[in-house]
Prior knowledge:
It contains 22 helices and 9 strands. It is α+β, with helices and mostly antiparallel strands.
Amino acid sequence: MNPAPEILLEALSDVPGHAGLGRIWQALPQARLVGGCVRDLLCGREVHDLDLASPFPPEEAQQRLERIGARVIPTGLEHGTVTAVIDHHPYEITTLRRDVSTDGRHAVVAWTDDWQEDAQRRDFTINAMSLDQEGRLSDYFGGLDDLRAGRVRFVGHAVRRIEEDALRCLRFFRFFARYGRGEPDGEACQAITRLKDLMTRLSVERVAMELLKILSGPQLLRTLELMEETGSLAVLLPHHAPLSDLGRLLACDDPSEPLHRLAVLYPPGGVDGQGLAEVGVHLKLSNEGRAMLAALAKPEPELAATLDDDGLRRVLFQQDRSILLLRSWLVQAKELGRPDAGWDELRQRLEALEQPIFPLAGRDLIALGVKPGPDMGQWLKRAQHWWLEQGCRPDAGACRAWLAGQLSPR
């Protein structure tokens, strides 16, 4: 049974950007909300983007939206998509479509006014529902029942849908990691097993985007096991560590940070010659993402739940706090593989500590009579080493006094 329209409209009223929908429906009265926003609205999850579909051709939709004062950006006219900006909030609006042909990733489309024909070209039943301005749900393929059952199922024949777009293999795993419960759909798994090599044609950037979303999913371990069973994991992430290592991390109730989960699959030193830093390059991650993986791949500094505040300050001086926090979960997983109050306390202390900053600079040594040159650098290193041994506690005055004592004739 579909939810009552008034219940869906009440839930929709709490979504950011809801206010602009009235103006869109004024311009496009037959438009409906589609895709992820309908799915997440139905299962009570946070809705991020309000996407709509409309039977109006994109040029006409643009004209109608501009007449009600919306700023319209032609973000993908060849695919029937415009973006309306109302009160600084974007709404993506796409003309109803049917596929004319496809090359295994991109489709040539034609416009239609048939809502079921448009829904037929969507990937999964849980993404093929639509919601009109009266709160009426249109569900042509049993998506609501699948959503309630935690079942991710292709619209139509799974093999045909994957042959149309190989990215749908990855999207299956991504949605299973987020919404799946119980046994996965057998037809989908058989089709992916048969067609998994089509994923090698996908761009590395798009593969990385989907993988990171999979790695942040709540059903991650079962999803990766499923990817391993279908042969997909060997195609996408060869030479990975045993999934049991990741299971130890998840058993610690780690934060859902995809890069440090990736770090468990590719620990320092690598697996079969492929290390974490190399994986970041292979996946063409952002510079920030590559830097994070490179930092996690370093064996130092060493962390232990027994470190006192002096020891914590020393490691905090050596590495960024956010990296140390992520590293703490990796060490906990390796050592214990379960929740632990000692590690939780260490993270709390680490977050509370002020960032240590070595208080001396070259001018301090010049004031003590040290001339610029190699000797100055060596004296600074000695002073810093002493300061670290003291737990990064001495201030500038104490450091100068220690250094003066070292420089004075004996």
